[in-house]
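#help-structures
NK: newbie question, is this the right format to request a structure? protein is Metal ABC transporter permease
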Amino acid sequence: MTALLDLFSSGIVRTVLMGAAMLGALSGMLGAFAVLRRQSLLGDALSHAALPGVCLGFLVAGGRDLGSVLAGAFLTGALAALVMMLIVRRTTLKTDAALGIVLSVFFAVGIVLLTVIQTRGGAGSLGLMTFLFGQAAAILRSDLWVMGGIGLAALAVVLAFWKEFKLVSFDADFARAQGFPVTMLEAGLTVMVALAIVAGLQLVGVVLMVALLIAPAAAARQWTSSLGPMVLLSAAIGAGSGAGGALISATTRGLATGPVVVLIATAVVLVSLLVAPGRGLLWQMLAARRARARISDGRMLATLQGLATAHDNAGYPVEQGMLQTALGAMPPARRISSLEQRGLIRSVTHPPETTPHWELTDAGHAEAAALSGQPRKERPQ
């Protein structure tokens, strides 16, 4: 407890913790719309497109001025989004192809500019590499105001255009048919994503920023089918991942914050993919197992009822070999035991035969009739 209090007494730790949490919440909120619009690669393209802007901001300012660097990153990110939209609308290429082109071209330009700057030398140029992978320790308290302002502005826009963003995310064609300015709405969402990327360059960097945008939203999508809860849960997962990554990084010497934040968010995605109710892989496996069990039970009940009907005897005892021949294979013992426990069948003797026999109970006849849609055959009194 004392160690934890000492940790929070550090101003740098508190600043990084708050910055990571705010960035995670902002990224999670906006990433939810990108995931629903099936534009998960958008964040990757815009984050890589920010690199040439970082370099241009450095060249214009003549040094590593944070305001110029972030402004340049936003401008090239917005330009990349515009180019992507123009490619999709003016050519026959699909969105994924346009995003791939924008990502590779802009990132290549950024690498060339970065190489030119480093070739010129200078102490300031060395700090540009931190924008590739992030450097949480470089975050200042003044940067928190910038992140907070961007977050509040994005939240205000989302709340103001909630209905429109919701419609565009789920059915853009219907929104267009209803007269909504789909292009402007999509551009607004894209600009906000670019702002989130710019805000996260120092913490996570160009390469890993896409994970912070997509991972919380992907995890939240597993737990809910409603947009409102998904956005809130995605923001909460992003904030928790950011705060958790900052704390782990602060307690472990030499461990970078950005990659830890991404790893925590990815771990949440993996857990969600496994155990999320209704959609998790484990739940699907259990559902498939229950479905197979219902089919097996239904086949056995139908076979017993069919044989009883053929012999005009509702209580006809069916021998094991006869049941195996009719089904092609004997049901597992646990399925037979389950049917007996549910009171649908019962084991009977049929002298002089010594092999196992089963017959349907009244409840079994009712269940078999319900499954087949046929009227129930009454047991003779």
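mod (FA): yep, format's fine, and the tokens are attached above. Residues 283-372 form a domain with the Arc Repressor Mutant, subunit A fold (CATH 1.10.10.10).
NK: thank you!
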